[in-house]
Amino acid sequence: MIQKKHCEISIIIVLYNSEKVIMECLQSITQHIDIDPNEIEIILVDNYPDTTFENIITPFQEESIINIKYIKNPKNGGFGQGNNLGVNYAIGKILFFLNPDTILTKGFSFKKIVKTTNLNPKIILGFRLIDLEGKENNSYSNFPEYSCLSFFYNLIRKKAFLLPNFVKFLNKAIWPWGAAFVIHRETFLEIGRFDEDIFLCNEEPDLMKRLPDRKIVLLNMNIVHLEGHTTISNDFRYKAYLDSAVYYIKKHKFNKSFFLKSVIFREKLKYFLTKNETAKAKLKILRTYI
User: Which of 75, 64, 89 is nearest to 13 (CA)?
Assistant: First the structure.
């Protein structure tokens, strides 16, 4: 395949111990191409130091109808750093950040992605993420400073998924889940890429907060998000979430005390209503941040 200087879409996937899930993801991409295959490329950034992924990807690269680049990251700098590295190799006008544990489903359209993003360079696309049984997964979230309203936004996501497309104040308060979102390349570079001081969690809201005139467009396309394919413990991930959330709150000059009290109140309410042991474990971790 002749390497072009430009194409429409660069799909950037950061890998970390992802051999068990990535092939189904890649196959689903090739199965749903509805534009010229030469207008799509896939950038695979491997953050895992001991992987043997080259042995898996080489045959797929040779047979693929689209160009696939495999990059071995010299360090595991986290989700943001890996994606930034991928962008360095990307030639697409549109960046599609995608997790390796995702599967595109029937009705997915790259043509619609191109058409929608070309309407406005400040558009950021999100998708409907589901599990293997078709049930709603985390597809978008409210910004950390609105943590006291999480229940409200979760209810909107479950009962009126597309409502933020039409209500401005809702639109300004959400960010599409990092497992699958689309942004113009020029806009991504203009706002300064992912903050590499964030290793895990909250990279996306930090990125999108730096684009005040953003317009979130939620597409009614289903993407299966398997979640939990890594060996990271829930406690480790939650601590990483809190560390990055506190960093975000300080960086964007919001009230740290109010944020933590809001999160504590939310988890207390959840535990009171459900006796959920996960909420209890989170409360234990949260108290160390006060």
Answer: 89
List beta partners, residue 180: 98
Assess whether 139 and 204 both reside in one domain.
Answer: yes
Mark 56-69 as b/e (b = at least 16 C-beta within 10 Å).
ebeebbeebebbbb
Asked if residue 1 is part of any domain, the answer here is no
- Buried (b) or exposed (e) across 79-107, using 16+ Cβ within 10 A? bbbbbbbbbeebbbbbbbbbbbbbbbbee
Judgement on whether residues 94 and 162 belong to the same structural domain of the protein: yes
Is the same domain home to 46 and 135? yes
The H-assigned helical ranges of 140-197 are 150-159, 168-171, 185-190
2/4 Cα distance (integer angstroms) = 6
**β-strands 180-184, 92-98: how paired?**
antiparallel
Backbone angles phi, psi at 215, to 5 degrees: -130, 115
53, containing H or E segment:
helix 53-63
Q: Into how many domains does the chain fold?
A: 2
More confident: 132 or 271? 132
The CATH number that applies at residue 58 is: 3.90.550.10
- Give the domain extent around 240: 234-289
Would the pTM of this model clear 0.85, i.e. be above it? yes
Residues 82 and 206 in one domain: yes
pLDDT per residue as tens digits for the range 16-44:
988 889 999 999 999 999 999 999 999 99
